Amino acid sequence: MFLVQNFGDQSTFGINASYWTIALEMQLYALYPLLILLARRFGWGRSLIGLAAIEITLRLWWSVRGLPHYVSFSPLIFWFSWSLGAYVAERHMRGTIRPIPKYSLYAIGTAAIAAAFVRPLYTMSFLLFALLTGAVVAAFLYKGEEHFPVPVALETHLQKAGLYSYSLYLWHKPFVDWVPRLVSRIAPGVHIHPLVMFAFCIMLWLFVAVPMARLSYQFCELPSISLGKFLYARAKEIHMAKRSLAAVGE
Question: Which of 80, 138, 147, 229 has its CA 20 to 30 A from that of 65?
Answer without folding.
Answer: 80
